[in-house]
Amino acid sequence: MSLINNLDHPVSHDVDLRAMLDPSATAEVSRIMQICNACRYCEGFCAVFPAMERRRLFAEGDVSYLANLCHNCGACYHACQYAPPHEFAVNVPVAMAAARASSYAAYAWPGPLAGLFHRNGMIVSVVMAIGLAVTVGLMLAMIAPELFWGVHIGAGAFYKVMPHKIMAAIPIGITAFAMAAMVMGWRRYWRHTGAVWGGWRSLFDAISAVVALRHLGGETAAGWRGGAGCHTSDDRSSNARRIYHQLTMYGFLLCFASTSVGTLYHYAFGWEAPYGLLSLPVILGTVGGVILCVGTAGLFIEKRRMHPAVSYNNAGGMDYAFIAILFLVSFTGLVLLALRSTSFMGLTLAIHLGFVYSFFLIMPYSKFVHGLYRFAALIASGSETRRSR
Ligand code: SF4
Ligand code: SF4
């Protein structure tokens, strides 16, 4: 049976979500998608339009799916003959961005924490301030000031200012909670959108799209696999957003790899940090940190350069807050590397750990979930495409 027939009716998924999608955002996407479905001029622009064409009506789950499939490149707005000032006022990127922001809160787990998305910028700032204060305070309470301000060199130097058990126990607890929250959010998204599993090929397709960030290449005459990029405020196309996204993603993964190798060294071989400048954890962390700093700074600039007509500024500062905390995590890690043999090691370690702990704490309630839901949307899109052939 054709999948197209299956999707002729709106998908209604019975999921107990405390915070549903914003009804006005859902209604606007639904209205616009019905216009687009009649027009179909943009069908080669991105994965959203083929997915839209498999549906005739757009229930909340469908809206959430399409919104997370859109990456806000702006191409369809600039091509649209029904964009404002036309009375149809079609603005797909902004409608999708509003629904997407609303979906983050809808799938948040536990439900009462969904409100953290609404004033995300302010919440992240408060969490960062508390994280810093607690970490610096904890160190000062645990050790004498002369140790905090002392010069410590060689294996185990970091643990002179904060015992390893405490340094490891805090992130293990925070990360376990963050992972549980994100798994639950993913599960809610998957069920609510009625995503279908199309087999391992769909998963590999989604992974390859993420690895190359293929969709951010924008549209070409031949389709959306690698083109001119996203639209900027001066109404040109640029691949800068894709490049900075890639730097951010790979920088983050290298930093994660650095921490993982360091953990392996510690527990498997008994080698204590800090490690030498040419050791694997330091090389991975340094390269990753620099790339992450460049990527997040670039994303900030690109966000400012976005065309105002396709820029959605009602997400509680979520984008900027996420970029800022990622930048601060990587930047303070590099500062720690530079100052680890000086009397500022205790202070820079406390500040770096404060940002790291804050980052993991807010991860399930920040723009980080965009990566999860987008990945799920890409799997579902690949599955639909295969099943409808
Ligand atoms: S965005 Fe505009 S031009 Fe593109 S499919 Fe929709 S209505 Fe048509
Ligand atoms: S803004 Fe870009 S990704 Fe989103 S629907 Fe339009 S063309 Fe597709």
The number of domains: 2
Strands side by side in the biggest sheet: 1-2
Average pLDDT level: 86
Largest sheet: 2 strands, antiparallel
Protein structure class:
mainly alpha
What's the alpha carbon Rg, rounded to whole Å?
23 Å
Morphology: elongated
Bound ligands, each once: iron/sulfur cluster
Number of strands: 2
Fraction of residues in H or I helices: 55-70%
Order of helices and strands: HHHHHHHHHHEEHHHHH
Distance between the termini: 11 Å
Strand content: under 5%
Count of individual helical segments: 15
Poorly predicted runs are 1-12, 219-225
Plain-language structure description:
The chain folds into 2 domains: 3-107, no CATH class; 111-378, no CATH class. 62% of the residues lie in helices and 1% in strands. It has 15 helices and 2 strands. Helix 9 (164-192) runs parallel beside helix 15 (368-388), helix 12 runs antiparallel to helix 13 and helix 13 packs antiparallel against helix 14 (345-362). The radius of gyration is 23 Å and the shape is elongated. Residues 1-12 and 219-225 have low confidence and may be disordered.
Question: What's the gist of this structure?
Answer:
The chain has 389 residues and is an all-alpha fold.
Main attributes?
389 residues; 2 domains; binds iron/sulfur cluster; mainly alpha
How are the SSEs placed, and which strands pair?
Elements: H1 3-6, H2 23-39, H3 48-53, H4 60-69, H5 75-79, H6 92-106, H7 120-142, H8 145-148, H9 164-192, H10 200-212, E1 230-231, E2 237-238, H11 240-269, H12 280-305, H13 318-339, H14 345-362, H15 368-388
Antiparallel strand pairs: 1-2
Helix pairs in contact: 2-4, 2-6, 4-6, 4-15, 7-13, 7-14, 9-14, 9-15, 10-15, 11-12, 12-13, 13-14
